[in-house]
Fold:
Amino acid sequence: MKQQSAKIGVREYVSIAVLMVGTKATEDTPANLYSHVQNAAWMIPLLSAGFFFIPLYLLIKTMSLYEGKDLFSVIKKILGKYLGFMVCLVIFIINSFAVSFDTRTYTNIIRSFYFTTTPTLIIYAILMFICAYGAKKGLQHIGSVSYLIVFYAVVSLYVALWLGTKHANINSMFPLWGSGAFVLVKEGAQKVTIFADFFLLTMVLPYLKSNKAFKKGTWFSYIYICIQISMSILIFVCMFDESLGGTAYPFHTLIRYISLGQYIPNVEIIFFIIWIMAAFIRFTAFLYINALMFGNLFKIKDFEYLIPSLATIYLMLGFIPEAPINVSLQFKPIIWSTVGPMFAGISILLWLVALIRGEFKHAKNKNTM
Amino acid sequence: MQKTKTLCRLLLFFLMVCLLSGCWDREELEDKAYVIGLGLDRSKDKDKIKITMLLANPEVGSMQGGGGSTEKPREIITFDANDFIAAKATANSIISRNISYELLRIFVVSEEFARDSSFSTAFTDVLKDKEIRLNSYIAVSKEKASQYFMNNKPRMETRPHKYFQFMVSHGIENGLIPDSNLFRYFQTAERGSDLFLAMYTTAKRQKDPEIKREDEYTAGELNATGELDDTQFIGSAVFKSGVMFATLTGQETRTINILDDTTDIKDILVNIPDPFSDNKKQFAARIMKTENNKIKMNLKGITPKIFITIPLQIEIMSNPSMVNFAKQKNQHIIKKHIANHFEKGNIKLLKKTQTELKGIPYPLPVYSKKYFATIQEYKKFNWVKAYPRADIHVKVDIKMVDYGNRTRNAKRLGE
Structure:
C-alpha cells in the first residue's frame, strides 16, 4: 500500500475542515456559550474567529518558510530538539484529552436521545471502533469520504435550521450586547478553542498537493465555518430564547421538535443519520491527526498501526467521567479554556522565534538568489 | 492469503449485521403500546398524582388489518402513581405490551390539578423523559382528566391519535384555542415575563347554555345537538408561573392569537356588526393575517407606551343590509367600521389583562428587547411590574381583499 505518497486536494481538505469544526454547532457548544453571554452567544464565534485570525495567520506564514513540512517538524526546527519535543508532547497530550472528552460528549448525545437503554460503553466502543477503522485507512480515504458526505451534512443542517426558523422570533437576539460588551470580548478571547482545530490541521500539510492549496483551503473553510456556527447559534437563540440555557444539545432538541408537515411529524432520524456520519468523519480525522503526531514525536514511520491502540486509550480516558453532567461541567471547561489560548500562544511564539532568528530574511535571501 | 482475507471480511459483515438491530434498544413494533393521551389529576394521596393513559390500538384502521379486526381502537387505564415516568412500569401490570410515550400527542390536565401549586413541579418531569417530544400539546379539561378520556368518544375519527391531531391543529388554525405545546410552556416558564395560555377543553356539555356570538363560548358552552361527540375545544386556560389561575373565552383567545405572531392562524371566519343596519344585524367576514404586527415602544418614563399595528386582510362574505359596495363612500365606511371594531376588541382585552390578569398573555416583552443594550437593563425594567401601568395603543390596518359578490334580495311579491 502506497498511502504515504497519496495526496489530497483542496476540496477534500476543505470538507474535512468543515466536518471537523462545523459540527461544533450541533453539540453542546451553543448551550455552553449561552450560559456565559446569554443571547449574544452568536457573536462569540465571529469574535473568536477574529481573535484567532492573527495567530493562525502568523503560523501559516511561519510554516510557509519550510515548504512541505508539518507542524511538529517546524516546531522542532524552530525551538530546537529538546524544547520542541516538550512543546509537541504537550500539544499531543492536551489534544488526546480533548478527543476523549469530545467523543464522550457525542456518546452522551447518542445515548440520551436515540439509544436510551444501550450501555454507554457499547455505544462508545462502536463509535471508536468505526473511527479507528476509518483512520487506519489513511488520509486519502478520509478525504474522499468527507467530500462525499459534506454536501449532505451541510444541506441537512440548513434544512433543519430552516425548519427551526418557523418557530423562531428574531427579536430574541436582542439586547444586542447580551450581558455586556466587556464580557463578550473576554469570552470571545477565551473561546478561540472553537477554531483550535485549524491549528491541528496544519499537521496534514505535507499530504496536501501544494502549499498554496493548503492556504486557500484553510482561509476558505475558516471564514465559512465561522459564519455557519454563528448563524446556527443565532437560530438556536431565536428559537429557544431563554430556555437555551437549560437545553444541553439544542440541535437534537430542535430536530425532535420540527416536523415536515402533518403527514411526516417525526423526522429526527433523517437528520440523525447524516449527523452521525459527520461525527464519524470528525473523530476519524482527529484520530488520524493524533496518530500522526504520535508517530512524529517518537519517530514511528508506520504510525497507522498505532491507531487502534490510541483509540482504545481514548476510550478509557473518555470513560473516566461517571455521568454526562460531569463531562460538560467538570472536564470540558478545562479543555475549553486552555486549548485555544495555548495554541494561539504557541503560534505566536513560533513566529517570534523565527523572526528573531532571522528565518524570514534567510528565506528572502534564498528567493532573491 | 486471498481466501483468509475474504473470510475475514465476510465475518466482519456478519458482525455488523448484529449491530444493525440496535443493541439494547431493539424495538419490536408488535411489542409496543403507544400512549396517545396522558391525563393528570390530583390523587387522594397527597404526594401522588392520578394518571390516565389513553392507549391506541395500532391494528385498527391500518391497511393490513383489512377492517377484519374487531378490537376496540383504544384502551384507557387510570391509576395513582408518583410521577408519569415510573408509571410506565406500573402500567405494565395491566397492559401486556411495553408502554411507550414516543407518540404522545396530548397532555390533559384537570382544571382542579392545574390550579394546584404542586402542578408545575410535577409537570417538569416531562423534560426528564426522553421519549416525550416537546411538540406534544397540553390542554386543560374542565372535569377530571380520567373522566374526560372516558367521555370522549369520537364518532368518525375513532383512532385517537388522528382525532387529537386534527382537533387541535384545526382549532389552532381557527384561533379558538392557543398553540399550547410543551415547548412553548417551558419557554414561557423560563422567560418568566408573560402568561401561558393552554387550550381549554371538556367532554361534558353544559345544561341549557345560553346562545352567544359565534366565538364567545368557552369549552362546554356551545349548545350543539344531534348525533355527536360531546368533546369541545374552545377557549384557553391562563397559567402564571406554571399554575393555572384564570380562563379566557374563545373570542379572547382568538384576539390574542391575532396579536401573537408566533402562532400559526389561518383564515378565520367571524361575524362583525353591520354598520349599515339598524336592527343589529351582523355580516360574515373572512380574516386573513399574512403579515406580522408592527410593534413600537417607548419605555422611558414611568408609563411605558406601546404601539401595536395589526395588518389584517378582510374578505366580506355576506351582506345582510344589501349595501352597494361599488360606492366609494360605503367602502370607506365599512373599512373604518371594521378597524374600529377590532381596535375596540383588542383594547378591551388588553385592559382586562392589565387589570384582571395582571400579566401579558403573549410574548410581548420579547419585542421590547431591542430597546435595551444589555440583559441587565432589560431585567431591571421588570415587565411583570411595568405592564399593568403601560399605555397600549392598538391600530388595525385593514386591507380589503373582496367586498363580496353583488347580489340582490329576492323581490317580494307586489313590490
Notes: Chain A is about 75% helix and 0% strand. The first helix of chain A runs from residue 10 to 22. Residues 10-368 of chain A form a domain with the Amino acid/polyamine transporter I fold (CATH 1.20.1740.10).
